[in-house]
Write a structure and sequence with these properties.
This protein is α+β, with helices and mostly antiparallel strands and 227 residues long. It has 2 domains: 97 residues, Phosphorylase Kinase, domain 1 (2-Layer Sandwich), CATH 3.30.200; 123 residues, Transferase(Phosphotransferase), domain 1 (Orthogonal Bundle), CATH 1.10.510. It contains 7 helices and 10 strands. Helix 5 runs parallel beside helix 7 and helix 6 packs antiparallel against helix 7. The longest helix is centred in the last third of the chain and has 17 residues. The termini are far apart. The model has no long low-confidence stretch (mean pLDDT 87).
C-alpha cells in the first residue's frame, strides 16, 4: 500500500476535520479536487480517491485520532470476512480502507429501498463472528450497515474493543420487526428519521427510555403509514 500512502500524503494534508458536540457529524475544512467525500460520521469523514476509487481514506477529527490505531487493530483481528471491509494501513490521523459498494440502511429508509430480513440475519452472524475473534461488536446503527447485493456489510468497527452492550442493535432489530412493515418500500422523510434518532440519543441512557421511544416511534410511523 505504499502507492496509496503517497496519494494520501499528497491529497489529505489540506483537509482538517473537527468534531462537534451532541453527537453531531464532524465538520470538514478544506477539500482537495482529487478526493470526494462519501461519508461523514461523528468522529471521522471518509474520502474516496477519484484516481484510485477502490480505496478510501477514513480521516479522523483532530481530537479523535487515538481511535485510528485502535480501529486498525480491530480490522487486523477481524481478518478477511464477507461481513466487514479491510484495512490496508494507517497513519496518524487516517486509515486506508477498501471501498465498499452499497447504500447505508439510513439512506434505504430515505429512498424507500426495501431492507430484506437477510440483512438483519447477516448482522447477527457478523456480530457472532466478531465475538469469536475476541471483540465486542457495538455501535451498530443505520449508518454503519451497508446494503450490498441484498446482504449486509458492516463498516466502522472503532468501538469493537470497548466493554459493555450499548443495545443499539437489539433496539434496531426490535424496531425492524415491529414497525418496519408500516413503512417498507416508502421513502421516509429526513425530518422523521432525525426526530426519532435525536429522541433516542437524548433518552437512551434513562430508565424505561426505550419503551417511551418505541411508543413515540409507533405514533409517528403509524401516522405516516396511514397518510
Amino acid at each position: 500500500m505504499e502507492e496509496e500512502s503517497v496519494i494520501a500524503e499528497r491529497h489529505l494534508p489540506p483537509i482538517y476535520i473537527s468534531s462537534n458536540p451532541n453527537n453531531r457529524a464532524v465538520s470538514i475544512h478544506g477539500f482537495p479536487s482529487h478526493l470526494r467525500c462519501i461519508g461523514i460520521g461523528t468522529d471521522a469523514a471518509v474520502f474516496q480517491s477519484i484516481d484510485h476509487p477502490s480505496l478510501v481514506y477514513k480521516v479522523y477529527a483532530n481530537d479523535k485520532t487515538e481511535k485510528v490505531e485502535i480501529e486498525a487493530k480491530v480490522y487486523e483481528l477481524l481478518g478477511e470476512s464477507t461481513y466487514f471491509s479491510r484495512c490496508f494501513g494507517y497513519e496518524d490521523n487516517y486509515l486506508i480502507l477498501k471501498f465498499e459498494e452499497g447504500i447505508t440502511l439510513y439512506d434505504c429508509l430515505l429512498k424507500g429501498i426495501p431492507i430484506p430480513k437477510q440483512v438483519i440475519e447477516d448482522v447477527d452472524r457478523a456480530r457472532e463472528y466478531a465475538r469469536q475473534k475476541g471483540l465486542n461488536p457495538r455501535d451498530i446503527h443505520l449508518k454503519n450497515i451497508l446494503l450490498q447485493n441484498g446482504r449486509a456489510k458492516l463498516i466502522d468497527v472503532s468501538e469493537y474493543i470497548q466493554p459493555g452492550n450499548d443495545l443499539r442493535w437489539e433496539h434496531l432489530k426490535k424496531g425492524y420487526d415491529i414497525y418496519y412493515p408500516l413503512i417498507k418500500g416508502r421513502p421516509l422523510p429526513h425530518s422523521i428519521i432525525e426526530t426519532i434518532r435525536n429522541r433516542y440519543y437524548n433518552e437512551s441512557k434513562q430508565s424505561l427510555a426505550f419503551e417511551r421511544i418505541m411508543e413515540y416511534t409507533a405514533r409517528i410511523l403509524k401516522r405516516y403509514g396511514n397518510s
